[in-house]
Give the backbone structure.
Amino acid sequence: MQGLSIGEVAAQTGLQTSAIRYYEQMGLIPKPQRHNTRRRYDPSVLQWISLINLARKAGFSIAEVQTLMHGFEADTPPSERWQTMAHSKLVQVAQQMQVLQQMQALLTYGMQCQCLRLEDCRISDEQGCNEGCSGATQSEGCE
Amino acid sequence: MQGLSIGEVAAQTGLQTSAIRYYEQMGLIPKPQRHNTRRRYDPSVLQWISLINLARKAGFSIAEVQTLMHGFEADTPPSERWQTMAHSKLVQVAQQMQVLQQMQALLTYGMQCQCLRLEDCRISDEQGCNEGCSGATQSEGCE
DNA sequence: CTATCATGTGAAGTGCACTTTAAGTCAAGC
DNA sequence: GCTTGACTTAAAGTGCACTTCACATGATAG
């Protein structure tokens, strides 16, 4: 029997069969032939799926992968599609990095607190301000 | 009329009233007194809520804030609670940073592709390997 | 006195990326 | 012939952090 069953595609790509059907439904992978209701995949689908996996790892949502696949004029080469999408995604990634850095700052800042009761603690009062805890560690340059 | 209405608390904290009720339901803020079915808040709730906001900004989930509030012995000071929670959260933040860096790498790596047809493109084949596109830009040190 | 607004409740809805379930079909091995 | 396992479908469920809805009631302004 020629072609790959959905189970074989799942095994080779690391996806679950349910995810493959879902991707098909979302239009991310072409509808395969059927042998008596069963899907039979051309091996090229493996390449499609690894491109999808790459895009997902790079942070693209399913909707964005749809755009990558179908949101351009048919003769737009993959290189151009990727560049268009990747450009704005890089901006988002940079923003997310900043959020994480702020989280780091808040976490370490909060760790300096020495308060024994919540009522004493002013960590939460003025955000970004360097002095938070009443009796405690440091105070300086607070606006 | 003494105390704050839920609308006033919402206005002062930037939360929506629905979020305040939700936090109450989740046990993040103490149940306020009622005046004839209406909630009446002591102003100290503002401090509670800004601590919650801080924790949320620092990346704690609602469940983690619950732990922060109620997951320790009653005499554990806030400083110790925060340090315990922040330590593991900092590890997660660092991991998330690495994920973002990998995303950046994948995005810029894919932007080097010059392929005109998806079939030519091997970006997706061997991940982390530096040569991806057949006719194109560069190839070097690929394991 | 009445219209309007804020508030009360429980239940259901939202978005995302799938997974799980229920109920049925098909091919192969014993 | 029968069981087992892989497969089929549509529909519902998951997790998170809320929001929205429908409907009831209380407070306030004119």
About this structure: Residues 126-132, 134-143 of chain B have pLDDT under 50 and may be disordered.
